[in-house]
Amino acid sequence: MFASVPTSRLSEAIANQMMQAILSGKLHPGDKMPTEREMVEQFGTSRVSVREAVRLLEQMGLVEIRRGAGGGTFVVGPEYRPVADSFRVKMQLSHGTVDHLTDARMLLEPGLCRLAAQHADAKDMERLRAVVEEQETLVLQRKEVSSYDLKFHRAIIEASHNPVLVLTTVSVIDLVVSALQQARVGGGLTLHVVNFHRAIYNALCEHDAERAARLMAEHVADIQSRLRPLLAKSGAVVGWVAGARRGRDPSWDQ
Predict the structure, then answer these.
(1) Which of 8, 17, 26, 9 lies closest to 57, judged by CA?
(2) pTM
(3) Which of 95, 127, 193, 230 has its CA 20 to 30 A from that of 138?
(4) Which helix (H) or strand (E) covers residue 74, if one does?
């Protein structure tokens, strides 16, 4: 699978080959990487260089190391945590506020709707349909949902098929979720929210980019008008907070 590499900067050269195998699709999320011994033989180098290369990939969020029986080095799916963590540090150093995040959402999400209306494929639309119908069912059954309203937004973000905007917007919304978690404020589903989702979905089905963008702008503005006073009252801070929970809401990854 891999070729031998020159002796200079071995670990970086090895990591680059592994990264290219992942990005090109030769290795997929969930695949187990060759063992350390196998990689030493394939690369024609030392265990130290291979271990350093794997560590570099782990830092980039491309692989994870599992211990114990059945363990090893595994390829993982797209991981936005390193970028989101950098955003957190930068926001705190820059004294960023929730209002700054709101401004970013208002600029980003309507534009993503426009792109989704143009680029969403059948798989994207099926995912959106399933999310909307699931949310409608949950609301009608009056089930409590602590989802921060993100599954729908995630589906639209990824339907834009623009990796730069996906990475940026995921990081912004991840910070919004952290602020909500600090404030212990729920962004749960309501009929009002789900009706917005249905209307946006219908606009996307009709490839009406401007209507989808307008509805998303109204939706984000509505969400923030309801959450802003709650966040202000709580004193939630954007960025690193001692003892604060760091992970995004699990539904963000569904």
Answers:
(1) 17
(2) 0.66
(3) 230
(4) strand 72-75
Report H helices in 44-159.
47-59, 81-93, 98-119, 122-140, 150-159
Compute the distance between CA of residue 206 and CA of residue 186 in angstroms, rounded to an integer: 32
**1: CB partners within 8 A, 6+ apart:** 21, 26, 34, 42
Whether residue 86 sits in one domain with residue 52? no
**Closest by alpha carbon to 130, among 171, 106, 162, 159?**
159
Same domain, 114 and 37: no
Q: What is the pLDDT along the chain (254 residues), one digit of tens a residue?
A: 666 655 547 888 899 999 888 878 888 888 999 999 999 999 999 999 999 999 888 877 788 888 888 889 999 865 556 666 677 777 777 777 878 888 999 999 999 999 999 999 999 999 999 999 988 988 888 765 544 467 899 899 999 999 899 988 988 887 877 777 666 655 567 889 899 999 999 999 999 999 999 999 999 999 888 877 776 666 555 554 433 334 444 444 44
In a domain, 3, yes or no: no
Give which of 95, 108, 242 is closest to 173, Cα–Cα: 108
Instruction: Give the list of residues 6+ apart from residue 237 with CB closer than 8 angstroms, or none.
Output: 92, 179, 182
Question: How far apart are alpha carbons 138 and 149 in whole angstroms?
Answer: 12
Domain tally, the chain: 2
